[in-house]
Amino acid sequence: MVVSAFIYFTGGITSYFTSVYVLPIVAGSTVRFRRGGLLVATLSTVLYVSLVVAQYMAASGLLNDPWLTRSALALPGQSVARYTVALNVFRILRGRAPQWSLADSLKSAGARCNRLRRIADLRRSIAR
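and the corresponding structure tokens:
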């Protein structure tokens, strides 16, 4: 939500900082592995699309928000907006794939270390 607020204050759909959405996805993938990355990527996508929809609703007069109405003058056309949203959503969702493989490799490395520790403990107990 902090990233969405940052994107909101830097222009929403016209913001140059939509790549910042990848940072919480990396954190979620690191802490909760694949499931956490997918959850954060989905939430980030929903928040970004909601922000853009709110901007265009304010521009058309369907939503009365002084913060959104102020930036309505600089909004791109609908075809450009669709392309921009699709590109940014792809970027957000693509950002989780490398973290998944990193998280999975860390998980399997941890499992191998635990297995090796158990084998070493077993050897020590046999040697006694």
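(Above: one complete record from the training split.) The chain has one domain: 2-127.
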